[in-house]
Amino acid sequence: MIAPRRFLPSISALLAFEAVARLGSATRAAQELSLTQSAISRQLKTLEEQLGVALIARQGRQLQLTAAGQVYVGQVRDILNTLAQASVAARSNTGGGTLNLAILPAFGMHWLAPRLRDFALAEPEMTVNLSTRLRPFDIAQSAFDAAIHFGHEDWPGVRYLPLMAETVVPVCAPDLMAAPVSVPADMMHHPLLHLETRPRGWARWLSAHGIDTEPPAGMMFDQFSTMAQAAIHGLGVALLPTFFAEPYLRDGQLVRAAAQDAQSIGRYYLVWPEDRAESAALRAFRDWLASQALSDATESR
Q1: Number of H-type helices and E-type strands within the chain
Q2: Per-residue DSSP letters for 63-87?
């Protein structure tokens, strides 16, 4: 249910307030919005009267936000951005079949993107918009319809579609080792590269092969892509998901540093807000993604 109209300011008043808050001047706001200074002042006065609170105070020639204004302007910017994104989506796909998806960079680039053409062919009236997010966020308050999540079922306020476990493999530049290690414990004699979101990755790989010794420290990276580049340039051995490592192994930029692989710490999931109505685009994409994950699981057996 939408709030009563007396609590809903006009878009023009919100635009005027946001511009003044950002520029610190009614004159500059008027120039940006192609209005007169008096029109901006009227919009601000109307907005403050409607809310019953002062949002802006004059400090000499400058306009300063009050404490209430500082809180309110952040919320107004989020609302205006969401409205703009919704309008662009509606214009770009008049059928309404748009899905805004937050992705993890490695999964999105190396697993999802190569398959999206199949979805586009199956659902030509639907558009999938992709944006990168590295960690869970408040999806209910965002413009995203769904997100790709790695780890466990610990993202509050969402529903889950399990996709697949992550299998990791050690890789390195071709000239870093004379041959892949045959004994997993020998991996600790080489420089190991680490990922911030998998800080215990090497410890788990070693443990999976019966080695409980703590692995040596090494360079730390925030994304698989930068860690892979470091490995390509001979800085150490990277522990990469198999789907991410395959293109580099195929073209010879990286080679396997050991024959053994191992399961990582979690699974990949599609998640979506549990309290939001599901769109046709979300249902279609979820069904298609489930079929892709099942096909992958069948092929790997």
Answers
A1: 10, 11
A2: EEE-HHHHHHHHHHHHHHHHHHHHH
Burial of residue 180 (CB within 10 Å: 0-12, 13-18, 19+) is: middle
Q: Average pLDDT in the 208-214 region?
A: 91
> What Å distances lie between residue 230 and 164, 199, 223, 224, 243, CA to CA?
27, 17, 11, 10, 18
Q: What structural domains does the chain harbor?
A: 5-92 (1.10.10.10), 98-164+266-300 (3.40.190.10), 167-264 (3.40.190.10)
Segment 235-284, tens digit of pLDDT: 999 999 999 999 999 999 999 999 888 777 789 999 999 998 888 899 99
> CA angle, 232 as apex, 231 and 237 as ends, to 5°?
25
**C-alpha closest to that of 255 among 169, 157, 197:** 169
Please write the tens of the pLDDT for every residue from 116-160: 999 999 888 889 999 999 889 999 889 899 999 998 999 999 999
Sequential DSSP letters for 91-127 = HH-TT--EEEEEE-HHHIIIIIGGGHHHHHHH-TT-E
Q: What is the pTM of this model?
A: 0.63
Each residue's pLDDT tens digit, 9-29:
889 999 999 999 898 888 998
For the chain, the 3-state helix, strand and coil shares in percent, each to the nearest 5, are: 45, 25, 30
Q: Please count the other Cβ atoms lying within 10 Å of the Cβ belonging to residue 261.
A: 18
